[in-house]
Amino acid sequence: MADTTCKSVRETTILKRTIGLAVAFLTLASLALAQEHATLVLRSGQHIRGQLVELSGLDFTVAVGGVEQLVPSRDVAVIEFGGGDMQEADWVGIPEHQQAVCLKSGAIVTGQLYDISGSAPLKITFQTPAGRREFSSAEVQRIVLARPTPPTGNTK
What we know:
Layout: H1 2-33, E1 36-42, E2 47-56, E3 59-64, E4 67-72, E5 76-80, E6 99-103, E7 108-117, E8 123-128, E9 131-136, E10 140-144
Antiparallel strand pairs: 1-2, 1-5, 2-3, 3-4, 5-10, 6-7, 6-10, 7-8, 8-9
């Protein structure tokens, strides 16, 4: 009888662990699907690489290493979806002091970032002089909010 009880307890423990691992895996998988990999280039020049979750209020929510953090939108200069930092030539088509969405097709749309929401691909809403436009993050290379501040001090 004692062997049957021990065996039952072990089987129950193994079943609970298996279910727990399955739930954890499915939770992580669903989080990964709901987010988009991006690099936030801050005005300071610092890079934050992670999963862009959304723009909520005045903050971007970014998951870095599975931990969500809020990044104030006023601190963000560029959101990169296409990889690679902006080079000087990339700034040519972007008017000074204006926000822009740079599409993978090469088109540049100026206006103001209104919202980032949804799941992969994210829905990016941009306010333009002609009204609101929605883009899929799959078609966006980067969103330019401001120019990063060049490093100061001795660069030798």
